[in-house]
Amino acid sequence: xxxxxxxxxxxxxxxxxxxxxxxxxxxxxxxxxxxxxxxxxxxxxxxxxxxxxxxxxxxxxxxxxxxxxxxxxxxxxxxxxxxxxxxxxxxxxxxxxxxxxxxxxxxxxxxxxxxxxxxxxxxxxxxxxxxxxxxxxxxxxxxxxxxxxxxxxxxxxxxxxxxxxxxxxx
Amino acid sequence: xxxxxxxxxxxxxxxxxxxxxxxxxxxxxxxxxxxxxxxxxxxxxxxxxxxxxxxxxxxxxxxxxxxxxxxxxxxxxxxxxxxxxxxxxxxxxxxxxxxxxxxxxxxxxxxxxxxxxxxxxxxxxxxxxxxxxxxxxxxxxxxxxxxxxxxxxxxxxxxxxxxxxxxxxxxxxxxxxxxxxxxxxxxxxxxxxxxxxxxxxxxxxxxxxxxxxxxxxxxxxxxxxxxxxxxxxxxxxxxxxxxxxxxxxxxxxxxxxxxxxxxxxxxxxxxxxxxxxxxxxxxxxxxxxxxxxxxxxxxxxxxxxxxxxxxxxxxxxxxxxxxxxxxxxxxxxxxxxxxxxxxxxxxxxxxxxx
Lengths: 170, 354
Hints:
The complex is a heterodimer.
Chain A: E1 2-8, E2 11-16, E3 20-25, E4 39-45, E5 48-54, H1 55-58, H2 63-66, E6 81-85, H3 88-94, H4 96-102, E7 109-113, E8 115-121, E9 142-148, E10 151-156, H5 158-161
Parallel strand pairs in A: 2-10, 5-7
Antiparallel strand pairs in A: 1-2, 1-8, 3-6, 4-5, 6-7, 9-10
Helix pairs in contact in A: 3-4
Chain B: H1 2-66, H2 107-176, H3 182-279, H4 282-307, H5 315-339
Helix pairs in contact in B: 1-3, 1-4, 2-3, 4-5
């Protein structure tokens, strides 16, 4: 399985590359009034309106962890990246099984992350279940972990992250 | 009786002749003494006059050499070496010695020249200071350009980063193509490596540029200190030298005044010596006076001889004879007196020898 990796604070995270549509530099987005705080806003990319999730807030991090270094530098100026996800429809065209099991969302969504990593080829057998004592991230959001060059790569369960875990189970 | 008188007269005459001879001899001695003394005095005064003239020439050459103006003494009079001291040396005629020394400068010219050299020196230092300040500005420009390089490196980093994102997206696209996209994925991976090394490269460049900037700042500081220090030192030195030059000028002026005074005194001395030499002309009068005394002595002798004529005349005729004789001698005396010098003082007459 190919995994696109990135960092969030000191966490090393990864997402199945088949679920990723594209990655781009973080840009100004339109806030959505009344939405939960982990919804950063709406973004228009080439005519597609994308809902941006602030992954840090979604994991329940505090303000200091979301914006390290206090108020220094506005969030807009801080270098971030948007990981835009494919829609269920798009994944369906590539891998029907994957779409049915891992991709319940119909609308275009994106995750805001800190730094980009690389593309890693992970052997499925090496994927371990989430350890109980993993801090800063709830086990619900983890698909599995891989020990990688003395660091732990956490592969995200995007459906749960987006809060759609129960919908697609049916 | 007559015989006896005659013999006595003869004795008296002889005694008088002896005395007159003595007188003559003494007169001769007086004249000789006076002549010797005058000769020596004249020589001595001539010597004094020569020395005064030499002194005058020396002083004149000194004063003329101290006069500001010409760079070279027109007469070529050497202030240091004593001139040959001719009796009638003209003050500005100099010695006329052929040893024209080419360029010789006096104190005033020395002061002026030193002042000029120092001014040039200070001007040069000020110029160097100004150039140093200009260098500081240039260094500032250089620093600004380095900042620009840093900014450009940021752009390079941004491009590398964009390339990285692009490569990542390429791999995402390749992944969708499955096995068919594998070669494309390799290419994308290489592009990403390229972007990464470009990033490292620009980081290294930034490190070098930052170090250069620090060095440039240090150099700028040193140049600034140099520029300000040099200027103040030069101006201070110029002031001190100006003071010294003023003192030297004052000393020079005082020396010139003193020399002028010495020259004046020498002139007065020369004049006094001239008067003294002129006064030595009394030898002539002494000679004439002694000559007159000798003549008178001769007359006295002849009177003596007349008185002691042999007694061939009758005693009754002796008195008229003697009276006649006396009259004749009186006339001779008058004659001698008329011829004698009537001058009684050196101030009379108008003798000008010089």
